[in-house]
Amino acid sequence: MSDPSTRMLRLLSLLQTHRFWEGPELAEELDVSERTLRRDVERLRGLGYPVDAARGTGGGYQLRAGQRLPPLLLDDEDAVAIAVGLRTAAVGTITGIEEASVRALAKLEQVLPPALHRRIAALQEAIVPTPKFGMPIDSATLVILGQACRDRERLRFGYVRKDGEQADRTVEPHRLVADHGRWYLVAWDVRRDDWRMFRVDRMSDPASTGTRFVGRSLPGGQDAGEYVRASMRDQPMRWEASIRVACAADALPSPATWWRGRVEPIDDASCRIRTSADNLEWLTVHLMFLEADYVVEGPPELAEHLRATAERIGRACGGGQASRG
User: What does the angle CA 172 – CA 176 – CA 179 come to, to the nearest 5 degrees?
Assistant: First the structure.
């Protein structure tokens, strides 16, 4: 690879994988001598790229984080992923990054080659962003939580429970999870000596304590997303409902998977949904998505609420004595 500019771009692309490259291996990859490789590394350093070098047997090179952001080298797939991510972030639930996302997207589109620009434009035209759902989250809060998860440092923050009780919590953060428009922190609660899930929008003043900890594994080999979904299903709610559906469990329409509940097979032609919610309106909305026939086994308040809702819908469709103007 004789052209220096092409060679340096290739070198930068390899180093941006963040793996450690032994000198001979990297030189062979670029088809240059180790002396030429050393000169190219010095040129990258002159451009602001912090390349660490280890000498001696087994020595090599690795790109590390620096004090400022140098130019980045992106391949086509990187550019597509970043463009779509920036567009999504501009209409997301994380406050404080919308304007920055639009600015970054404009800068990226300025330097895209025509073919790639058309590809991204076609993809963005096909994407319809949905309205924001859930409480907005300050981006600075997510950064603090994410860094604490990465560095395994204990966190302290104020937290408001669902019942309104407020208390200070000290936790060992595990992972951040985004689910249905909300952000959750999965962490080991130091005082309760157990795993807990915290809604990020209910936190206040999160800060690292500077105390490191040894990471733990979630129970049952779950990942953080599975833990959040299981915790949401198991949370006590005001209304516990049982719905018998005239449909086999494995043929249940997919909207039933949105429910915070469980599906129990009864026989080849029916199943039972056990679910819960804090209000009857939420249960009613989900039941209206079911395409199969069903019977409300309980509570009676849900059956009455469904009956009243059906009457209103009937009147709206002309089935009742609606007033005429």
Answer: 140
- 246-254 contact pairs (CB < 8 A, 24+): 246/270, 246/292, 246/293, 246/294, 247/271, 247/292, 252/292, 253/289, 253/290, 253/291, 253/292
Whether domain 146-234 has CATH 2.30.30: yes
CATH topology for 239-316 is: Alpha-Beta Plaits (3.30.70)
Average pLDDT over the chain, rounded to an integer: 79
Axis crossing angle, helix 300-316 with helix 280-287, rounded to the nearest 10: 60
| Beta-ladder partners of 240 | 276
Tell me: pLDDT of 178 over 70.
Answer: yes
Helix (H) or strand (E) holding 79: helix 76-90
Does residue 300 register a pLDDT over 80? yes
Structural domain spans, the chain: 4-63, 76-126, 146-234, 239-316
pLDDT at 297 over 80: yes
- pTM, two decimal places: 0.52
